[in-house]
Amino acid sequence: MHELSLSLNTVDAVVEHARQQGFRRVTKVRLAIGSLSCIESQALQTGFEFACRGTMAEGAGLEIKMIPAKAWCEDCCQSVSLQARGMCCPNCQGYRLAIETGEELKIKDIEVE
Known about the structure:
It holds the Pfam family HypA. By secondary structure, this protein is an alpha+beta fold.
């Protein structure tokens, strides 16, 4: 379950940033997660709640925004939407695709007190 490790690292980064800025509490964390990232959002939520225990982020809310997958097709020279890995280009059925978005995990912002 790599979501627990991701949650621990996310909370560590958020807490460290909030401390450096002089805040006393983190109330919300917003993440952007790519649809191809293989991250299960419910498992991430559970891991986040666990990782926040005993930190200045305890009780913080977690908001997750899913980022759709897009790729550049080198055959038809167009940006296309993908539903899953291994798909062909929906326009030309080519497989020479370079992923543009959909693999990321980003801390978008945090709310603090």
